[in-house]
Amino acid sequence: MNKNYIPIIGLEVHVELKTESKMFCGCSADHFAKKPNTQTCPVCLGLPGALPYANEKAIEYVILMGTAFGCKIRSFSKFDRKHYFYPDLPKAFQTSQYDLPFTYNGYWESPDGGRVGIRRVHLEEDTAKLVHEKVNGKAASLIDFNRSGVPLMEMVTEPDFHDAASVNNFLKDVQLIVRYLGISDAEMQKGSMRLEANISLAETVDGKYDLPDYKIELKNINSFKFLVEAIEYELKRQKELLENSKKILQETRGYNEKSQTTYSQRSKEEAKDYRYFPEPDLPPLTFTDEHLRKLSLKLPELPGQIRSRLKKNYELSQDFTDYLASDKNRISYFEKAVKLSQKYNVGIKTVADMIVNKKALKNYPEPEMLIKKLLEIIKKDFTPAEDTELAVKKVLAEEVKAVTDYNNGKTAVVGYLIGMVQKKLHGKGDVKVISDLVISKLNNHE
């Protein structure tokens, strides 16, 4: 008998924060494509006796991110040591957060109205980078410590996702919000945003299920597309194992983009394996209500709020609002263009269409250039205003019944009258101009 399974998916999203210096020292945090091991000091190299100090800006960025996702903010927090032995970690421990993260218990609302819990958004330091190449003809692994100690924000969700498509929507929203906040470029190809997913399958009985006693972690995937592929393959692999009565072992797996398959890397650790304890070289941190209030004032209008406002104020379609809100510069351009369009009686939807479908930002870098172009198009293609007004007068004189019906409360006839005017103008009238003239003359009984 075939059993029914539901995917159980939780995410860990790592984002390198765009600060000038590293998390616990004064070295530059801008490490991408720099000469290896040129941005280091005793602290980020883990040398004995070197003492760390916390980057205030990075902490503020994490609190802003938590606030954007409705998280609770702790007034008291601390850093912890997370122990593991690996070449990219010179101290043999990572300074992270364990039981008292800066922010916790938030949420994300999906476009379909569903809700995903945000367990925590915390702060830690990034590791060094391993570079695998040949040296003197022999395979070797080299270590670049420029990335070691860069501020790394980690967002952990509850296991509330049940399909890869929802995961994809969430991650794109996270990337967009990070960019709106200005706390990171979140460039996947540069490694400043990295993705991990914990995946398992739960057997359902009458629509109910218990969380499985295992999870597979897909580690360090560097594109939304690859993560979706990896999740879909992993769900298929796990289902085949369960249907053949095989036990799934908890482990960490990687993803091979060429074969589109996952592969085993190592058995997955649990919290006890990391031997967490409070970081003795960094004092605990306290935040006053006033400090947190001032931080919250730095929160900009977020993409979801912008989408709702565009839909309400301008009656734009979902596709249009999604496209406009998906870039901070794009929405700023649109808002400026709308203000100008209202001065010159250019339709808002015409402006939006030019931006969404006609590459306006590329062809007309300034909103003023776009409106100027639209005005040129209107003057060239539409009948002159005096001819339009003459046509309106003639139609109102000829369509006595329609005018009487309007005066008796049948306002729907306005559409008919506009159509008759357009017929006289051979379809070259500006509908907005015609509509305004018809209604004005009807109301003033001209």
Can you give a write-up of this model?
This protein has 446 residues and is of the alpha+beta class. The protein is built from 14 helices and 16 strands. The strands form 4 sheets. Strands 2-6-7-10-1-11-12-13-14 form a 9-stranded mixed sheet, with helices on one face. Strands 5-4-15 form a 3-stranded antiparallel sheet, with no helix packed on it. Strands 3-16 form a two-stranded antiparallel ribbon. Helix 7 (328-343) packs antiparallel against helix 8, helix 11 (385-398) packs across helix 14 (431-443) and helix 13 packs across helix 14. The radius of gyration is 30 Å and the shape is elongated. 32% of the residues are buried.
Helix and strand layout, with pairings?
Elements lengths: L4 E12 L39 H13 L3 E2 L2 E2 L2 E4 L9 E4 L6 E7 L5 E11 L3 E7 L2 E7 L6 E7 L6 H18 L11 E11 L12 E6 L2 H20 L7 E6 L4 E7 L9 E2 L6 E2 L2 H8 L6 H12 L3 H8 L2 H16 L4 H10 L2 H4 L3 H15 L3 H14 L1 H8 L5 H12 L6 H13 L3
Parallel strand pairs: 12-13
Antiparallel strand pairs: 1-10, 1-11, 2-6, 3-16, 4-5, 4-15, 6-7, 7-10, 8-9, 11-12, 13-14
Helix pairs in contact: 2-3, 5-6, 7-8, 7-10, 11-13, 11-14, 12-13, 13-14
